[in-house]
Amino acid sequence: MISPHNHPLDHAMSPFSRLRAVPVGGCRAPGPGRAEGDRVKHRFPAIYFEATRLCNLSCPICMTSSNDEERVRKSRGRELSFQEIRDLVLVPAKRLGTVAVGWSGGEFLLRQDALDLLRLTAQLGYRCNVCSNCEILDRSLLEEMKGAAGGKLTISVGINSIDEGNQWTRDTEADHSLEVLEICRELGIDRHDLKESFHPALRRSVNGYVSYTPFFLSPELYEQVSGARVEGRVPQNPPIGCWAGTWLTLNAEGDVSVCPVLLDELNGGNVQEKPLDELVLQSKLFADITDRSKLKGRCRRCRYQYTCGGCRAMAYFHSGDYMGEDPTCFFDPVDCTTVSEEEAETNRLFMKYLIVARHAGFYKRPI
User: Fold this and answer.
1) SS3 letters for the chain?
2) pLDDT digits (tens, 9 = 90+) for 177-215
3) pTM for the full model?
4) pLDDT, tens digit, for every residue of 74-102?
């Protein structure tokens, strides 16, 4: 445990040389299986909800199959209603420690009850994020959205390129999205450029953009700043590395999974069968994904088994095993004592990230 007087956030440079060597991740012997009651203690701070497959674009690369007319037509008949979303998802999520909800699609704003859902999100005390392709966004709608969300709203805008490449990948030019970002700035709606979030080493590798992995954070540093809150063997204070096992993802029909990329591939159950909290806490998929001692291959013998975890989506698509090694990772450790040359820089940037994570509600200093 760390006292307020020696917490690394109180120093410009963390005292790495004085860190206690604690075996973590691949160096930690797998403990006994968690009891059912222990699993309730695991928090899922964020929900990513693809609440409709309906879209006003037809991008050639679409994770929600919104470019497939037949798939969209069938989905519309099974799309969760406002009442189902309230009673089976948002209210039960409070019991899972959820603090933020991200609305997406398709185009979420094409739902007739989109503003009502934003209002409900705010009323339940969640932070609210909307992912939009921007085609129908203008100043008037943005003001309505901000009002519905209680004045606290983040807009996520996807722009693959600011040249003609955006038209090919996203079925629209980037100009209007850039105009929307400027209006968001004027209205005081949060803006965050993802390029500032990626480790410089990852920016040099195209595979680095697949997920927030690999993440070469010292396990000892993480245990110090988190207060050794190893809940479910997935980093929780704050979440880092692969977020599978930290957030909950849902599609329009109510299927629940561990990652947006895996949403239509790995199904942990449907909320029309059980409320979200019961479903997650009884799911084998979530029991596995929140226990990184079960990782295989290079991920299992890696020093960063706990603080990184490897991309579970890439593992699944490569081998069919969501607990397999991340095939895109460029780090090949001999064993759990092998230290990456990127660790020192990762540690330094992580200390800055803690400030952002604390502001966002994903990090609390240990008492």
Assistant:
1) CCCCCCCHHHCCCCCHHHCCCCCCHHHCCCCCCCCHHHHCCCCCCEEEEECCCCCCCCCCCCCCCCCCHHHHHHHHHHCCCHHHHHHHHHHHHHHHCCCEEEEECCCHHHCCCHHHHHHHHHHCCCEEEEEECCCCCCHHHHHHHHHHCCCCEEEEECCCCCCCHHHHHHCCCCHHHHHHHHHHHHHCCECCCHHHCCCHHHHCCHHHHCCCCCCCCCHHHHHHHHCCCCCCCCCCCCCCCCCECCEEEECCCCEEECCHHHCCCCCCCECCCCCHHHHHHCCHHHHHHCCHHHCCHHHHCCCCCCCCCCCHHHHHHHHCCCCCCCCCCCCCCCCCCCCCCCHHHHHHHHHHHHHHHHHHCCCCCCC
2) 888 888 888 888 866 555 555 556 555 544 433 346 788
3) 0.81
4) 999 999 999 999 999 999 999 999 999 99
